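Example pasted here:
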Amino acid sequence: MRKSIISLALALGLALPAFSDTLTIKPDAPARYTVTKGDTLWGISGRYLKSPWKWPSLWQMNKRDIKNPHWIYPGDVLVLSYVNGQPRLSLEKGGQGEVRLSPQVRMSDMDKAVPSIPATAIEPFLHRPLVVNEDEFNTAPRLIAGPEQRLAFGTGDRVFANGVGEMGNWQAYRASKPLVDPDTKENLGFEVMYGGDVVVDKLGEDVQSMHITSVAGEILVGDRLIKAPKDQFVSYVPHSPDGNIRGQIISVYDGVDGAAQYSNVVINRGRREQVEAGDVFSIYKNGKPVSIITANGEEKSVMLPGQTIGKIFIYRVFDKVSYGLVLESADAASVGDVVAPPESE
């Protein structure tokens, strides 16, 4: 299966940049940097900018450019220069001097392209319908049996289902939980948990036969089957949200209490609020009450100030919710923490 790459969109046209923020280059930013295997766009941006989400401005991108996928590769050389006093980054192809990227993409080399963020942290989430319509999910084809009357199955097992209408690749899911807006109590969607992949190879009127090709944890009797989507390449440039979008973390994937770096979280904002893949949000943790003793000896409860604890990169957007990866974290992010556009830093 072709690896999904989330990579830099480099469009170095003469259009005005999408962001007018003043760029401050780090004192130790390299004048020339050779891209190496293992680099990420976020990491490279951090070599030049304290605010990596301002990377499009450094490349003079406009809003259209940000959504237009191009690629950089290990061995490419990035050159920092100044035009009318403003910093600009350009790409040098070996021996050719500074060049503007053409619209072509080296299709055969896409798997070698530098990803925006660690692809391994989110790749399992890119081709799976994490949020579904609950009614449709409850009527989807269902696993009904497997070998030796077992309830749980693994890779290589032959299992049986009811309701499958076509052969090919399918994915097994089980119900997880509804996603609810903490303020309005609106039902934002129904989250499902991925169990594994199956290939349907025999159709019957009432029972369909298939074998399991991969498992994430386990596949169980009762799991629902959803047709596997086609592989696709996705390319996101990290950037500040377009507008003053504020929301909250409403779920930490896998149900852990706190989200550290490279944890996946869900926020209560989606397409209808104009969230898009590549948006970077700051995470704000509200202050906590503490007791103090005043000068006259009285006990008093005071509220500690809130603080910014990290950054979230949005990589998958549904109608009412979005999934993001915690890229920076000075403290564990939790359900209820506020997300908002990054401060100007």
About this structure: The first strand starts at residue 32 and ends at 34.
